[in-house]
Amino acid sequence: MLTPEEQREIEQEAASYPERRAASIDALRIVQRRRGWVSDEALADVAELLGMSPAELESVATFYNLIFRKPVGRHVILICDSVSCWIMGYTKVRDHLKARLGINFGETTSDGRFTLLPIVCLGACDRAPVMMVDEDTHLDLTPARIDAILERYE
Amino acid sequence: MANVKLTIDGKTVEAPANTLLIEAARRAGIEIPAFCYYEGLALQAACRMCLVEVEKAPKLMTACTLPVAEGMVVRTNTPQVAQARKSMLEFVLTNHPLDCPVCDKGGECELQDMVFRYGAGESRFLEVKQHVDEREWSPVVFYDRPRCILCFRCVRICAEGMGVAALGVVNRGASSEIAPNRGDHLECDECGMCIDICPVGALTSGTYRYRTRPWEMQHVGTICTHCADGCKTTLGIRNNRIHRGNNRDRSGVNGEFLCIKGRYAGDFAHHEERLLTPLVRSQDGFKPVSWAEAIKTVAGRFAEIRQRGGKFGVIGSNHTTNEENYYLQKLARTGLGTNNIDHHRTGDVLSLLRARVPLATTADLYHSKAVLIVGVDLAQQHSFLAYQIRANWRHHQARVYTVRRGPVREDKIAARIVSVEPGGELAGVETLRDDLAKEPELVILFGDAIQGEAVARLTEFGSSLGIPVKYVCLVDYSNSRGAVEMGVLPAEGGMTLPEMMAAGDLDALWVVGANPLRRHALAGKPFLVVQDLFLTETAQAADVVLPAASAYEKSGTVTNVCGEVQRLQKAFETPGTKTDLEIFGLIAREMGLDLKQLGPWTPSAVFAEIARTVPGYDLPVEVLEAGGAVQAGPSDGLPDAVWAPVQSAGDTLFTSGTLGRYSKMLNAVREAPGELYRA
Amino acid sequence: MLYNEPSPLEVKVLTRRFGLPNSQSLDTYLASDGYKAFRKAVEMGPEKVLEELKVSNLRGRGGAGFPTGMKWGFVPRNSPKPKYVVVNADEGEPGTCKDRLLMENDPHQLLEGMLIAGFVVDAHVGYIYVRGEYRYVIEILDRAIAEAYERGYLGKNILGTGFDFDVYTHTGAGSYECGEESALLESLEGKRGVPRIRPPFPAVAGLYQCPTVLNNVESFSAVPAIIRDGGAAFAALGTPKNGGTRLFCISGHVNKPGVYELPMGFNLLRMINEVAGGVRGGKKLKAVIPGGSSCPVLKAEECDISMDFDSLAKAKSMLGSGGVIVMDEDTCMVKAALRIMRFYQHESCGWCIPCREGTLWLRKLLARVHEGGGTQSDVPLIGELAKNMLGRTFCPLGDAAAMPTIAFVEKFREEFEAHLNGAPCPFESKPVSA
Fold first, then answer.
1. Distance (Å) from the C-alpha of residue A70 to the closest C-alpha of chain C?
2. Which of A45, B13, B375, B621 would be B449's cystine partner, CB 3.0–4.6 Å?
3. Quick one: fold of A75-151?
């Protein structure tokens, strides 16, 4: 079941378009922002609200990098692995993150706090290396800065 | 549309403006290879096999999306084009498992053929291939992702052709795959259109997979014996067994269309409960006997009853051939001296024939500018007719009108929908008068909701529109229409089927390919002879049961719902059974009837007599023999026949009378036979 | 987010308000000529606005460089269908980070550009398609939009002109492919971001098959200045056929990476040395990707070049989206090619065979070569496979993957050969310069 708040937000998005399904990506993100990921049940609920079949919505959901169809930790770390970040020391930053969290890409720390995923260019190449934690972008990464950043996410 | 002239490989080609280059080339005998391009379906430009050189274009162009234009100069035979094709095939093979030796499609695979003709002889791909395990989406449909080349034909045929849209695409890039509509399984028509349209072995069928190789089968094109639409199905036969049905050669009225019944429900013929020996009732129940003894028993009793002026009843079939139906009614009338002959009437063909109005062909459903569907769930009961109308809507923007009791799939393409209560159909049609009168032409299809007087009123309505109107009276089974036209109906003074069942004073009741006890109680104790494939409720009550051959095991003609006559081709034999026609002949001979007057009991001889005597059936035999369909008519309206109420059995996509009960495939799909799955 | 220290060499047209206090606010915008261009456009009428745009020589800032005035001119103005204005804010080409700044620092400039576009083609609805990673940018835009509605710069009868215009933001969810305009429209309609068959182009059949003006953020953001100061003034800032300024995003091994607004035709070497403070740590310049990762790499000796669409095309590269990626002598060109291919492989939508299969094959092949698993025949194979994709894919993503690959392997062939037959990467033994 979608919460009344989720429904309200989705309805608000749907009202901006000639067709309700145009709000599908917005709707998935609205749900994901609250629940961390999009479960089958949530997907079916959103589909119903937008007048789509769950299969149609699944087809959309699985196209996009930022829609998670599997459970994730409380915070998702997305580290850019594209060319500018790589030039500026992505490898070192990635290795530090993996070592510090004790996980590989696609994994979640045992306390459920962090999921680590690679992501493509985040559009802050002049401040590389870059990563996102949830919806915050963090720039000019160094191992020391990473330690400080992670502290902020409980 | 005006024609344009263009040059393809130095050859001057003329084609209507806006024709796609790939089509113009094909019509001129120049093959431009393609996987994703498929005539009649939405364009994709995804496989990039059809790249050609077009003068003044900076790069290769896809022939599948390029409309021809005056003066266009195209080259399909240059080294650059050959290299492009070779490289596309090299790319598509990188993650393809190349498991051709065990793949169902081996030997008839478009990818194999393409690589053979246009591809490289060796592979340069040294990396690890992606693997995904095979999945069972339904008892009918299996998906093997590694073999899939993502041409999206299956997705389109399901959405556009069938109006079901059960297949989609999930994930992205090299992880993209085709996905079923219920997550891990399909809920759909289970028609198998996706399987047959698949150019590779990515989609395979539960009935055929890993059973045989295509070259080990005989391929026999015959007519599906289930519903009345008359689809051609090409049966793949090995060792007297049907391994598959398809219509890839697009012969027949149905083009490549087939539903689950035409493709997979031929398996009733091999059901273990199939009757393989004649049975005669004794004190301890049925006793298997020889054919000679069984025929002797039947003929003896029939002769004795005939001699003493006893009372016969004859019930014919919706599935037997025109020749059998004709011979049966003639035998009944002249040999048994009875006028008590009828069959389960599923639609009021008689009233329509008597209205003397034009009748539509299956092709008319694809071409008519407007179609009105009255009182029937067409997608469920006449899947092919629904497909034709849907294709007409997609390709020609036909205007579709539905008058129905509850939602039907055709509503989605309807210009107007009229909801009615049972019995309100005619009134519902009347509300469309103004819209319909504006159409340039119309085809009206009606089911058993319209019968008797209502048929006359419907045709009067049609005539009053002032536009050309053609009609289709919907009936249930493969030769329901033919049974009427061959005269398996009582003339004045004869008993109808319900009357025979209720009479109580019949001395003999001869039931051929029918199961009246399922709907009616039988009064009295007539000598009951039943010819059938299975021990039906009626057969269980019989005194003699004669195991009959199915439509797939005999030759002859059948007449579909639109009056189109087509020829059955015998595909195989089930030892122990005989065709109904042969059984009739053997009984007649044993009875000592006038064989010269009855005529030889071979299908061709009987058809020759039909052509001479049945109005509208003087049809070109050479066309029928060549596998063509010819609409019979005009009929004389059978002035002597007695009208009786009709009732459709209401079969769905997953039921088909007695035959359906014995099809394991129809019963295995999870769309629960008998319940309407509404796509 | 902080904007980098500006350079004195910059010519600030689109970025003139960057760094002003509250540059996102309507008041700041109004105080520096905000929404004057829209009023002027209404006075001029659509034809004259189009004329000014053509005179300005503004070419699409998304990467393809198509003249913006011409693109708007393709919209059939008497079409009975509704028309739309769509902003491509799906900035995703690696090395590109300018649209983010334009939206963050001056959202009203973008809104005014949209308004003018709407007025010219008689559209009344506009959408800003913002990439999914820019959540905070959407919040900034939404605030600017709300402010504009409050003060009558959006909505009904804008500024008493009788013109109505509504603007909505739309979030992506992570897909580079959606930067391709027809894929963006699909995504905006709530579908998978798979491109459409073109023609028809969006100007004729775009959003919901209706005529649509679709441009990059920077293109729309340039419009108010062009209308305000005249097309000729804008054109004069650049070189012939390459009007105005452009935002160059300089990343990689330079002392002062950042986004700088420079005239079209600015010399690349000067850009690196004088604007971005030269190569970091006194290292030697090895190569530059001049316009985002899809653009063929330039060797150091090729970098004395005018940064405009035509000069770079002549040098067999592209100006692209303005992402200048600078690589010093310690950078492995095989790894750079691999990183770029990984990106395109990951972002390939999977629709067409050559892109879907070609990028995957090349990614695997480049990885194997980088790890020392390659043999002599693998080097020409890399270039050949890329050429087999080039010009043959369904959309430009295949070309974007093929072009840089071909350039890397042709220009740095000896470096690829140094990785073969079990050899360790010659650069990975060196300390990483970051």
1. 16
2. B375
3. Glutaredoxin (3.40.30)
